[in-house]
Structures are given as structure tokens and as C-alpha cells.
Amino acid sequence: MVGAALESSQVWNDLNESDRQKRLGRPSMVEIRGVSKSFHKTVKDRTTEIKALADVSLAIRENEFVSIIGPSGCGKTTLLKMIDGLIPCDSGKIVIDGKQITGPGPDRAVVFQSFALLPWRTVLANVQFSLELRQTSKEERTKTARDYLKRVGLADFENHYPHELSGGMQQRAGLARALAVNPSILLMDEPFGAVDAQTRQLLQEELLELWQRERKTVIFITHSMDEAVYLSDRVVVMTPRPGRVAEILDVPLARPRLSEEVRRDATFVDLTNYIWRSLKQAMENHH
Amino acid sequence: MNSRIGTHILSLLSLAALWEIAGRAMNSTLIPPLSQIGAAWWKLWMSGKLLANLSMSLTTLAIGFSLAVLFGIVVGLLMGRFRAVEHFLDLYVNALMSAPTTAFVPVLILWFGLGVESRIAVVFLFAVFVIIINTMTGVKQVDTVLIEMARSFGAREREVFFKIILPAALPAIMAGLRLGIGRAVKGMVTAEMLLTLTGIGAMIMQYGSSFATDSLFAVILTILLIALLTMRAVQWLDRRLTGWKAEIAIE
Prior knowledge:
The complex is a heterodimer of chains A (about 290) and B (about 250).
Chain A: H1 2-12, H2 17-24, E1 28-43, E2 46-61, E3 65-69, H3 76-84, E4 91-96, E5 99-100, E6 108-111, H4 123-132, H5 138-151, H6 167-180, E7 185-189, H7 197-214, E8 217-222, H8 225-231, E9 234-238, E10 245-250, H9 259-264, H10 266-286
Helix pairs in contact in A: 4-5, 4-6, 5-6, 8-10
Chain B: H1 2-26, H2 34-47, H3 49-81, H4 83-98, H5 105-112, H6 116-140, H7 144-152, H8 157-194, H9 199-209, H10 213-241, H11 243-250
Helix pairs in contact in B: 2-10, 3-4, 3-6, 3-8, 3-9, 4-6, 5-6, 6-8, 7-8, 8-9, 8-10, 9-10
């Protein structure tokens, strides 16, 4: 089963646009077409060009959960920021629902690795922040924010300040802030990278539950192999800098996925091991 | 907090007792006993002389410091936000920050004359640079992730400024105001002693030169009290505005 999945994904990169569309069955919601990005770094008057991403192409379906995994510095966060529209592409383009993106938009929301909560605002006010920028009325904002705080299990903590909460709770607030604007695409940048292992597993389960209810397209950056496999429909493996798509793997595990069962499943174990070998190979080729 | 206030009171009482004893033991006009200073203070107060001079001095302080706060925060925000503005001005700000402001007093006399304008200018110059530098540093130290977050949720430049940069820089701005008020009080007394003799600065010069040491110390203690109270007022404001920061620091 895994073998078949791997085979099909290796072929995937060689297909042209229309063939990909056919194979997906549904129209792609996010299409990343031949995107490259370089940065200029100046150290002591000497400017060096760092190639972050090289010709990355990827198509993501509506309501799909896709993880992007790769070694540190492979440009996965850069790619996420480009999908969000925070930084422009050097070449290539990113198309969402048929429209090329030029900046951040209400169809996307980011969950940040470092939570990015405003320390001077309470949890409730932090969740309202995303709504304030979209000109909804005050009552409506409070109502929506409370609703999402309830969904992430923070209803009793709305008047707490971020520093009074644990990392896991802070990220729940970050998730509520992103969900509150009701985006169709959720961009998650190693969201559980800064919390302890037990909390991490708990948050993964909660995220899947939420995702199953809300049905959103999720693009999830991670460096954890089992996190990628447990959560995703497909896992995109990237090479070290400059980041390219090494392979795209289907995760043929049935949903809903119960954490304990899935992690013992032979497919889960095989796939995780396969990704590990794939990453290792990509890094060895690099050196 | 309570034990701190207790220790403060103990410290003041010890100093007062020591001063009283030393004053009586030496029996010299150079160190009058505290009770004598207290009596002199009361006399100055009842005659209305202290209050008249004090209100003149404090008016100068209030106007000069307010202008410094307004100007300092605006310039500091611009310097922190725009690299070009920073590079255009940082030479002068850094030079004037560490230069002895007293040296400019003769120039100010030439420009503004010997009136209240010059004294306000001295207070302003004493306080403004530390406010500029603190504000600028505060703006530059804002966590870029927060700015990125705001942009990601669709914030425009104005919203990034008012919802992220200004509140994030507020603790540093308030620290600048705390340092600034101390310098402003110094500027106030300096101006009154070096320019035209007015306000409590004039009282110091007058009592100092006539060996009226009890009245002299009464005025000096009054200045110390002003310094302490104005500092407390800024600290109070700071806690009101940036209480969240204090709580983080305690943890």
C-alpha cells in the first residue's frame, strides 16, 4: 500500500498541470507553480545570495490536510509566508481559487510557531485582534471570539494574559484567533514545535477534531515525521536549501484517526520510516 | 510592598534623628538641626514665599517637560520607524544626549532672553534626548513576529503602528519619561540658578550667600521632595499603562 502511494507521488512531479488536475479529481485550491526565492545577506559589506527555494510546484486540494516536512533551513517557512502573501515570489506564482495572490487575504490565516500573541492583551482581546482588522461590530467580535475560545477549550481563560498561560494554551489562543476570521485555508508554521511532547500529542488530536468539523484546507509545516503522517492526507518532503520538492507521499490511513491506534498501525510506522530515509538521503545528497 | 514602605520610614526616621543629634552636637550654622530647618520651612511656607516661588518653578517644569515628552516621543517614534530619519538625526541626538546641557545656557540666553522662555528651553533640553532615545529603542525592539502577524491578518501601516508598535514600545517610552522627569527637575533648578534668579533656584542662591543655612536646607529638601513626587507620578502612570509588563517581570 505504501509502495503504491510512493510510486504515484514520484510520478506526480513529472505530470503537467491538467493531468494533475485530472488525477486529483477536484480542482486544486492552492497551486504553487514553479516558485523560487532568494535572499540577500550582507555580512561586513559582502553580500551573498542565499537561494531559499528553487522551482517549487505543488497543488493542494480543497479541504485537504497537507504537511510540508524538511530539514531546518529548507525554506518551508518561507514557502508558507509566500502562500500567505507576506513575501513575494522571485519567479513563478501562487494561485488560490484561480486568482494569483499578491498579499495577505481574508481567505487565509496563519498560526505562528512562537504564538505571536500580544502580551498587553487578554486572551479574548487577542482573539478579537484578527476580527478588529475586518471591521466587524464590537458585539459581533466579542461573540465570535468567545465562540472560538470555547471551541479550543479556553472559555474559562478569556481574561488571562498570555504570560499566565502554558505554551499549549497560548497556541490554542493562536488557533482560535486564526479560526475566528473563518479562513478557508489555515497556514500552520510548526505550530506545536514550542510545546512539550504530551501537550503536542493532545494538540494534534484536538486539531484533527477541529479540522474534521470545520473542514478547512490546512498547510502544516513541521519537522516531526510522525506528526506529519498522523495529521495529513499528503506529506510533502523537501530537500535542504535550496528547498525543492523531493517527494509527495499519500497517507492512506482511514479517518477519523485515533492517536494510539494509528501510531501502532503498520502503514504509519512504514511511512514514518520511509520519510526518515527520504530526508536522510536528501541531506546526504546535499553534502 | 508594605515591608518596603516600613523600611523607607525607618530609614527616614534614622536619618532625621542622626541629623538632629549631629546638628545639636556641633552647634554650628553649617549644619542646623533638623528641627530648626523644619521651623524655617514652616516660616517660608506661611509667608507665602515658598509657595509663590514653587508655583513659578513648577510651571516652568510642567511646560518644559510636556514639550519634551511631546517632541521626544514624536521624534523617537519617527527615528525608530524610519531608518532614514534615524540616520539623519542620530548624530545630533547622541552628541546632545551626552553633552553637558548646562553649556548651552549662554546660547539660550542669547536666543530667548532672560525670561521664562529660556528656563523652559533648559528644562526641555535636559529631558528631551533621553526620551527620544528610549522611544526609538522601544520601537526598534518590537518583536517582528508581532508585526508580521498583524500584516498577515490584513493590518495596514496605520494599524500596525497603533495596534502593535505603539503599545509594544510603551514600556520603553515610559522608562524614558521616568529618566526624563529626573533630568527636567535638574534643568529647572539649573536654569533658575544660572539664568535670572527666580523660583526656588533663586531662593537657594539667596540663602546660600547669606548663610541662612536653615532656610537653605528647607529649600533643598523641598526640591528633593519634588523630584521624588514627580518620579512617583510617572511611575504611577507607567503602572497604569503597562501593568502587563510589570507582571511579566515579576514572574
